[in-house]
Task: inverse folding
C-alpha cells in the first residue's frame, strides 16, 4: 500500500491525536456490551504479497489464512465485480467465526464517482450477500480527488444505502479535514446514518487521524512504514482502543497494511498479542505454534 508513504518515516511524529470530543458523546450513547467484538486482519491473502507467511505445501491460501486470522479486508472486490458463486465459495472455505470486509468496486467510487450507481451497487450487494453472516462492514474508499464539492453525491449515496447493511466511508481529499465546518457536516452525515468513519493511520497523511467515530465501530486501516516504529505505533493503538472500550466502543475492525505487505502478518501477530495481554481477549495469534515458519524470507 503506497498511499501516505514517505521516504523518512523516522522524521514523522506518530503520536496519536487526542480523541475527538464528539467521539466521546457518540460512544456514551452506544449500547453497552459485556465484551467488544474485535476483528483483526490483513488486506490480502495471496502468497505473492504475504511472502514467508504460508508453510511450504500450502495448497489453498484462503483456507490457511482464515485459520490464522478472523477477518480480511477484501481489497480484491475493488478491482472487479465478483459473481455470487465466488462469494459463496469463499463462504464455504472459511471457519464459522470468520468475516469479510469487502471494498466497494472502483466503478462505484472512482469511475462513476457515486453518480448513477444504483444498478451496480445492487448487483454488488446481491453477490456479496452470499457471504451471509460472514459479511462484515462494507467499505467505501473515495478517490483522493473526491473533495467536498461532491458532498451532494456522497449525501445522496448515503441516503440511499440500505440501513441493514453496515457501511464505512473513507474520504481522502485533504479539504474534508482542513475546514472544521466541512468536517462537521461530513461527520454529522455519517453519524445520522450510523455509518462508520474510517480512520487511516499512515505516515504521510496525519490529517486522516481525525479520531472522530460516528457510530460504535472503530474501522481502522493501519499502514506500517516498514520501520521499527511500526510496533510502537501499534502499542499506542492498543492503549487507545482500551480507552474507547471503557467509553462504550463495541466493535473494533482493525486492518494492518504495510508499504511492503510481507511484514503485515508479523505486525498483526504483535498487535493481537498486545490486545490479548492488555484487554484480556483470546484472539488467535497467527502462526503461534511450534511448527510456525513465518518469517520475512
Result:
Amino acid at each position: 500500500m503506497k498511499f501516505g508513504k514517505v521516504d523518512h518515516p523516522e522524521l514523522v511524529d506518530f503520536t496519536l491525536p487526542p480523541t475527538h470530543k464528539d467521539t466521546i458523546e457518540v460512544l456514551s450513547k452506544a449500547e453497552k456490551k459485556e465484551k467488544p467484538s474485535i476483528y483483526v486482519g490483513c488486506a490480502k491473502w495471496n502468497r505473492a504479497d504475504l511472502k514467508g507467511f504460508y508453510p511450504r505445501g500450502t495448497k489453498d491460501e484462503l483456507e490457511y489464512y482464515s485459520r490464522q486470522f478472523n477477518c480480511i479486508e477484501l481489497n480484491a472486490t475493488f478491482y472487479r465485480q465478483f459473481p455470487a458463486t465466488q462469494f459463496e465459495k469463499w463462504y464455504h472455505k472459511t471457519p464459522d467465526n470468520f468475516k469479510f470486509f469487502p471494498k466497494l468496486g472502483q466503478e462505484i467510487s472512482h469511475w462513476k464517482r457515486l453518480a448513477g450507481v444504483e444498478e451496480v451497487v445492487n448487483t454488488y450487494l446481491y453477490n456479496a450477500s452470499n457471504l451471509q453472516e460472514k459479511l462484515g462492514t462494507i467499505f467505501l474508499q473515495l478517490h483522493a480527488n473526491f473533495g467536498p464539492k461532491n458532498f451532494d453525491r456522497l449525501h445522496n449515496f448515503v441516503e440511499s444505502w440500505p440501513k441493514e447493511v453496515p457501511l464505512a466511508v473513507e474520504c481522502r481529499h485533504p479539504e474534508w479535514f482542513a475546514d472544521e465546518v466541512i468536517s462537521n457536516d461530513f461527520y454529522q452525515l455519517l453519524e445520522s446514518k450510523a455509518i462508520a468513519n474510517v480512520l487511516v493511520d499512515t505516515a504521510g497523511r496525519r490529517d486522516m487521524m481525525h479520531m472522530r467515530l460516528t457510530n460504535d465501530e472503530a474501522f481502522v486501516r493501519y499502514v506500517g512504514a516498514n520501520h521499527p516504529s511500526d510496533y510502537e505505533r501499534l502499542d499506542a493503538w492498543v492503549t487507545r482502543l482500551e480507552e474507547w472500550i471503557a467509553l462504550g466502543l463495541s466493535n473494533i475492525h482493525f486492518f494492518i497494511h504495510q508499504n511492503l505487505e510481507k511484514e503485515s502478518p508479523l505486525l498483526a501477530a504483535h498487535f493481537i498479542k498486545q490486545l490479548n495481554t492488555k484487554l484480556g481477549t483470546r484472539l488467535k495469534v497467527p502462526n503461534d505454534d511450534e511448527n510456525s515458519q513465518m518469517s520475512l524470507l
